[in-house]
Amino acid sequence: MTISIWALIAYIALIVVWNGVLKRNIGEAMLVGFIAVCFFGGTDFLPVLWEGLVGAASEEVVFAALTFVFMGYMLGELGLMQRQVAILNSIFGRFRGGAGYVSSVASALFGSVSGSGSGNAAAVGSITIPWMTRSNWSPVLASTLVAGNAGLGISFPPSSSMFLLLGSAAVSPYVSADMLFVGLLCGGLWTLLHRLILVFIWVRKFGIDKVSKDDIQPFTTALKQGWTALMISLGIAIPLFLTVGPGAAWTASRLGADAADAISIIVWIPVLVLLAAIIIGWKNLPRTGHGWNMLLEKVAPQYAVVGATLFFAFAAAASLGELGLSDDLTVLMEKLNAPAFVVALLVGVLILVIAAPLTGTATIAAVGGVAFTALTAAGAAPLAAAVAILVFASTEGASPPGAAPIYIATGIAGVDPGKTFVRLITWFVLPTLVIGALIAIGLLPIIHP
Description:
By secondary structure, this protein is an all-alpha fold. The protein has helices at 3-21, 26-39, 45-57, 60-77, 80-92, 98-114, 117-133, 139-149, 152-155, 160-166, 177-205, 219-230, 234-243, 246-255, 257-261, 265-280, 289-322, 325-333, 340-355, 360-377, 382-393, 404-413, 421-440.
């Protein structure tokens, strides 16, 4: 094997050991992995190191991802997500098992702005698990659904895992941020459809009843009290309209092709959503310097891990590219002689196995580029391959025994985590594996902008 492939193996091994075995945080693990990659440059250690640092510093998605962290935090802090859930409950709560539908849709909404499986389980679970248990959902079933839905933060754009995949030297030449945003939205909708079908089956299988009337506001009341929370969606809709399909043509006709191409939805979506959230939730914002300091102190620890993880993941990707990884893997994967669906399943299992002890972010950082090369070499379209990889990684919340969302959800429900393991694997992990493989080979279509 070549130096670049040995560097990749060492990189993956160090991340798994540092984070999964030694229990150090993932940001630190990514730094160690990056330094290890640079050592494989031998006498070119410093040029390889410099190439990685420059590559990471020049990535706009690093800024975007950090903005998303703050945006997601503010949506929860200002109570906007809770208002959206109340509106959903006024619609779905009148149906049998309605709280489960609310939980699934809310997980997709929250996941699309936070990208955090643990945060998803905590924020959505704290609201919907009590509702579910009051409407004939058993605590075990309710916590299983919330943990299984936690990974929707990865399969819906945008997420830190999406940014990491875009930063891979194997992916970036073929898939742009705008392409992946739209394609992953389609992939996320497939995974959400699976969850809604699952709730439909469980409602009938386990005899689940409607939500208590005491927990349901009239739709007009919920909409009157929370309609402003829906306005944050404009922060997503406006950049999408200006950059995709007919809207992109309209923008180009008004601003010129170069100016239109310069509009990045990955940068503008978190900025506009954050601005909308601040305007809508203005009354709930701190009014003193001390209040702002306390607010920022709560979110700051997330940056220490997320920022380091993103920066050093991009740095390692650039350094591996400098070592020639993309070309070497292309040669290696072209020798893999198997049908595309079989290759997709094998790649999915690889990601699933790594995601079980680690997070989806760490998994994408470790093997995202390799998985992409394997899938495209087997005949998958680049965009479909990238979306499939993120769908595979979305099993992080449902993969026992190491997935944090399992313990968050069962802690809220007050049940033994071990009682959820079989259902999580059967109803969430394995179906998601099949969904990802079908996306990779094109049987579940996605939009290519």
